[in-house]
Structure formats: structure tokens, C-alpha cells
UniProtKB/TrEMBL annotation:
Domain of life: Bacteria
Described function: Catalyzes the dismutation of two molecules of 6,7-dimethyl-8-ribityllumazine, resulting in the formation of riboflavin and 5-amino-6-(D-ribitylamino)uracil.
Lumazine-binding domain span: 1-95, 96-192
The protein's name in its UniProt record: Riboflavin synthase
Amino acid sequence: MFTGIIEALATVAGIRHEGSNIHFVMRSAITTELKIDQSVAHNGVCLTVVAIEGDTYTVTAVAETLAKTNLGKWAVGQKVNLERSLRVGDRLDGHFVQGHADATATCIEKRTLDGSWLFRFRFPERYAALVIEKGSICINGVSLTVFDVGANECTVTIIPYTYEHTNFGQLEAGDEVNIEFDVLGKYMLRMQQFPTGTLA
């Protein structure tokens, strides 16, 4: 479980294909604080640390993860948002994030405002019921509040700190991002779809 509050950035230092899996070698200032088997969200995708060497560590993405996210398009040198899992007793500064991206979305607008940046995203319309005005959403691992919600579009505003300390600073119109919708909304929608369901 995560909160959508980014701790650090990592750089993709190497990519290796093995069957349907991809191994990513990552370089980050927090590498020395990690341990093997630890879960770390990468652009909002929960991946397990499988090796550590010097200032780099390795994570593996399987076919299901690659199909639902933009990880298959990562390139060496790319900046990635990192967040370690939530510890019991920590403040929940963002919202509950599972690290299980539902889909990818496309940035369709980036606009500089007077002291902030506006981004508009288009996502698959089948998720429309999960996005509400002033609700929470996780984009590339960042917990954000959405507004100007349409059937398959929404807008977020990024403050200078977030712009400088996440990869939103490199994001441009046309780029693809990972998106995770609010887990509470997903459970509520499921219960509406199956109102007579009972526990065995």
C-alpha cells in the first residue's frame, strides 16, 4: 500500500529482456536504503527489488504489468517516480494507492499558469464512473485531485514542488502515463454491479 507521495526519482540505467519479462536496472539516491524483496512503486507501479549492486537495484516487470502500464516503453536515462510502501503509523498525506495501475492515460494538454502547471489527461472511457470532481487519482504514482472531469478526460494542477521533485517536469502533451483510480470507488462500483452478492 502506498500514498502517492513521491520520495525520490530514479534513472533507468539498464534494460534486459528475458522471455516475456523485462528487468530494469535503476539508479537512485535511496538505493542504499532498499533491501531485496522490498516493494517500491515506480511511476505508480508496485515492483519488487530483486537485486542490489552499488547505487543500482533491479526490478522485474511481468507480462500483465507490461500490458497495463507504460513500462514497456521505458528507455535508458528515463526518470521514474519512486515511493516506498506505507508504514503503519505514518501520516497519510495523499490517498490509499495500491500500486496496481489500471491503465495508461495520455497527456493531451500541458499549460503553464502563473506559479503552477495544468495537465489534462484522456483515459479509457470504461473507467469514467471512477473519476469524480475533486476526487483522488494517482498519475505516475503521484496522488492528485482532479477537476473539470469529462466522460474520459480530467485535469490536475501541479504545484512547483511537485513539478520539480517528480517526473511531471519532463511530461509533455502526447506522453503516456500510468493511472490508478481510487480503490474505494472501484469497490463501490463493484457492489453496485452485484448488489445481491453474498459471502460464502
